[in-house]
Every structure is written in C-alpha cells, then in structure tokens.
Amino acid sequence: xxxxxxxxxxxxxxxxxxxxxxxxxxxxxxxxxxxxxxxxxxxxxxxxxxxxxxxxxxxxxxxxxxxxxxxxxxxxxxxxxxxxxxxxxxxxxxxxxxxxxxxxxxxxxxxxxxxxxxxxxxxxxxxxxxxxxxxxxxxxxxxxxxxxxxxxxxxxxxxxxxxxxxxxxxxxxxxxxxxxxxxxxxxxxxxxxxxxxxxxxxxxxxxxxxxxxxxxxxxxxxxxxxxxxxxxxxxxxxxxxxxxxxxxxxxxxxxxxxxxxxxxxxxxxxxxxxxxxxxxxxxxxxxxxxxxxxxxxxxxxxxxxxxxxxxxxxxxxxxxxxxxxxxxxxxxxxxxxxxxxxxxxxxxxxxxxxxxxxxxxxxxxxxxxxxxxxxxxxxxxxxxxxxxxxxxxxxxxxxxxxxxxxxxxxxxxxxxxxxxxxxxxxxxxxxxxxxxxxxxxxxxxxxxxxxxxxxxxxxxxxxxxxxxxxxxxxxxxxxxxxxxxxxxxxxxxxxxxxxxxxxxxxxxxxxxxxxx
Length: 516
Known about the structure:
By secondary structure, the chain is α/β, with parallel strands linked by helices. The chain has three domains: 3-241, 2-enoyl-CoA Hydratase, Chain A, domain 1 (Alpha-Beta Complex); 266-429 and 468-498, 2-enoyl-CoA Hydratase, Chain A, domain 1; 431-467, no CATH class. Helix content is 39%, strand content 17%. The protein contains 20 helices and 17 strands. It has helices spanning 3-16, 20-28, 34-41, 101-117, 136-152, 172-176, 194-201, 207-211, 213-218, 230-241, 282-289, 334-349, 367-372, 374-387, 402-407, 431-438, 440-448, 452-466, 470-475, 488-498; strands spanning 48-50, 73-80, 83-90, 121-125, 158-162, 165-167, 179-183, 188-190, 225-227, 296-298, 306-313, 316-323, 354-360, 392-401, 417-420, 425-427, 481-482. A hairpin with a 2-residue loop joins strand 2 (73-80) and strand 3. Helix 4 runs parallel beside helix 5, helix 12 (334-349) runs parallel beside helix 14 (374-387) and helix 17 (440-448) packs antiparallel against helix 18 (452-466).
C-alpha cells in the first residue's frame, strides 16, 4: 500500500468511528454522531481536528484485537459565527464513548489550547463512563480533566452539552463548567444508576426520573437548559454563546437590533398592580425594558421564584436577576439563592454588567428552609452581589422588605445606581406584620371594643403612607431616583452607559471564603 493509500485508509477509518453498524444504531436512538454534531455546531470548513489518529492502549485486557482511530473522542478547534472556539465530542460508536488514558489526554490537550488562546471550550458529552479495561488510568484521566475545568473557570467560558449518558465520576466535569445543556429523553446524568440504587436502597426509579433532562432542569438545578433534540441542543448552545465574551478580558459581543435607547413603553405604567398582594409576571417588565426579543433565560424551570438570564440593552449584554412575584410571591428560598448567586458570580467573572429587578417580600419562612440552611444558602447570593465589581443597576418595582432588600443588590452592598418605581415599598417588613408588632396594645384594645378590623386597616394605611414607599429611602440616598415606569429603558441604559468605565477592586487576597 502506498503512503497516499495508507493515508486515505486511516483517514476513512477515523471518520467512520466505530463503523457503519454502530453509526446506524446511534441514528436509530435519535442521536447524531460526534462528527455530525460538530458539523452542525461549527461554521462550515472551519474545523481543524487534532489527534485524529490516536488509538487506545491495545495491550490492555480485552482490547488487543481492536483498534479504533480517535479513541472515542473528536477534538479540535473551529468557529461559531466567526468566533474561535475549542471543542471535544465524545464518540459513542467507539467503546460507548468510554473515557480512558489517551481519550482523556486528547481532551486535556484541547482544553490547554483553549486556555492559552483565550477561547471558549465546548464539550459534547456522550459516554458510558470510565473504560474499565484501562483501570485506574481512566480515573486519572477524569481527574486531569476536572483539574483543567477548575483552573480555566472564570478565565474562559465552559459549556457542556450532555447529549447521551454521563454517569459516575464523569458528571463532575459538566458540574464545574459554566452551563450545562441537556437533551430531553436522550441524555442522563447521575452518580449512581437505577440498578445500584435499587440494590443499596431498595428504591425503584427509572433513568429518566433519576437523572433525565427534566429532573436536572426542574428539581436538582444541575442543568441550565433543556432541549428537544441534538439539533435543538446545538442551536441553543450557539445562542448562549452569542451573549458570552471570548474570555475574562474581552467584552461580550455587541449586537444592534435597531431598538431605540430612548424608547418609552406606556404599558409599563400598568403592569405592577395597585394591590401590594396581587401577583404579576416580572417577565412582562423585563421584555419591555430590554432590546426587542433579546432576553435569554437561564434555568427557566428551576427555582422559578427568581429569574436569571442574559439580555441586551442598546446592543450591550447585561445579566438579569429578578424576583418573580408570580411564584412564591417572589420570596427568596434556598434554590433561588443558589441559582442567582452562581449566575451573579459568572457575570462578574466575565465582566457582564448586572441589572437587578426587585420585588421581594423576604426569605421564605418554614422549618424545611431553616433546617435546609437558608441562612448559609441565602448568604451565597449576598456574598456574590457584594463581591461583584461589574456595573450594577437595581430597580425596585414594588416590595423590598427586610434582609431580602439588602441582599438584592442594594446600595449598601455596592450597587452603583438604584432606581425605584413610585409603587416601591422599602421597609423592615410588610405593613401588616409591622403594625402587629408596633401597635400590639392598640390592637388588643380595639379588639375588646369590637373595632379591630377598622383600627387595623387604618394603622396599616398610615404605616404604608409613612414608611412603605420610596420617598424616605430616596431622601436618605439609598435610592438614586424614583422613575416613571414607562421611561425605565432610557434610565437604565443611561445608567449603564455612565458606568462603562467603572473600575473597582477588592482587597488583596488569594480568594474569599464564600459560604458553600
């Protein structure tokens, strides 16, 4: 065989992965192959593959008579919308995508190149786990990857696409990355599978209920986005990437959608109800303030009492954190605090300004919350906002009560500009609770006289007029301006434009000790 013929044959074998039969099985399962996925993800003709001809350690038990080029993973670099990224895609047609020594070395090599080049790393996960035949080298390979996930965290964006199984120790790589996207009914993540759980705990559970995309998007919070298919997963990844910078130095991409910065919206004047106890959907305010159709929500199914996501204001990317009055009245609880805290830290690491919308009556009360560590978990969100040095603009739309007022990017934890609607109520607690404490004796007397309802209603109205409003807070300088809702967009954009040159540093230290 000539050198040219040998090149063609080896290249063909590498392109076929585990062979036509296994490729067909992948398709029958509703999944694309690793190379088909990369072809969809990357700009046509931009992919530069490396280590294409690497093979596994054939001397290991049970593998001597098998040889597959690529060792179950395709790695390299390409472009998405003209922007350079580095990628690895596990090939389930080769040994079930199992990870072993050279498989791991390939992933580590491309992660090192991504760090050195200052470009995002995207991992397409589809693997049966560690390759048992290679023993502890497989475990060492995972640890080598985990180390790099940790070292590049906060330097370059890391996105994990879980497009098949991801079990055992393998789950910790996506867990460390910034965003995890799963495919409904095709991808699964768990430390121990259903069979082990049944044997140890005598609990019957399906793979889908234990670690499916719905479970991790709505219950555990492990995943950030759920998609319908491989194609949808890749399209979602591309949209997410369009909001992210290349690294922690470069700015996020700016995109002018032709939405006027001076645009007013009269409907904003009527979204917040007159009744302080009536719910409304905070999405209505967000969508009317940000650039048209630019809001991209993250973890929309998890801890729905708080909203996080990316949007554009006058073309520039901002991170949105907002209480959701339509769910649990917008109270902060354990899951909401963890969800928002991690998002705030991502935005701060990559210099994405933060826009916070506040309507929070407090932290969710209850034995389960207290025993679950709401103090510790709520402190994560407080810590994240206080530590963040990016431009921070806050808008109080209605309630901002108690410690939750402090936590939600208040002036006291270094928010730069704080606005409030005329409907804002900033107080130690709600008028109803405050009146019960302050006027306990008067209420007891009124009850004896049969005038309790009348007296209580009047005291609540007086308290709300005197304390539960934005005017006193503005007089103290804790709110920079009370604004008309219809003009929210222009005020917020002007504030962020004013803060573009912001430079703020933290005290010199190795790192803080966030209450994990």
